[in-house]
Amino acid sequence: MTVYLCCLLFFGRVAEPGVAAPPVWHFNLQEAREIAQKEHRYILLNFSGSDWCGPCIMLRKEIFDDPVFGGFADSALVLVNADFPRMKKNQLSKEQQRLNDQLADQYNSQGKFPLTLLLNADGKVIKEWEGNPSVKAEVFDAQLRDAINNRK
Question: What are phi and psi of 126, to 5 degrees?
């Protein structure tokens, strides 16, 4: 329940009638890899501090919540969020914290926030965005498409 509430806080809006729903975010990379392999998709892994990191919050609002990003994400990506909230009310379950810590050990050992990685279905890093890219969703979408198309 705590993970759900934290996710709701971070990704937090419910679709209104006639408005595209925000993309689905996963919280377990192994599950995401299985989906990516089965559906021939890439993985977008985002490290965030949903309740303390200003650039993380802006990245979510400016890019991840944008319907342009959501449309592309739904067709080509499996989204994974590794959140590291600080406020006690937003703390994750011990299991989720363990999963996020493992992701940080593997992909974000320097503790950068936000950090967004495009991975192939095997978990290999294809492209990295350190910090908030400070671009419109359309530009971020184009960067993702370019990185994926250059892999084919």
Answer: -105, -40
65: exposed, middle or buried (Cβ count in 10 Å: 0-12, 13-18, 19+): middle
What residues contact residue 68 under an 8 Å CB cut-off, 6+ apart? 137, 138, 141
In this structure, what are the phi and psi dihedrals at residue 53, rounded to the nearest 5 degrees? -100, 105
- Of 39, 42, 61, 35, give the one whose Cα is nearest residue 50: 61
State if pTM tops 0.70: yes
Residue 47 CA to residue 101 CA, distance in Å, equals 11
Decide: 23 and 75 in contact? Cβ < 8 Å.
no
51 vs 72: CA distance, rounded Å: 26
User: For 21-64, how does the pLDDT look when each residue is reduced to its tens digit (9 = 90+)?
Assistant: 778 999 999 999 999 999 999 999 999 999 999 999 999 999 99
* Full set of structural domains in the chain with CATH: 2-149 (3.40.30.10)
The CA distances from residue 51 to 15, 29, 134, in Å, are 22, 22, 19
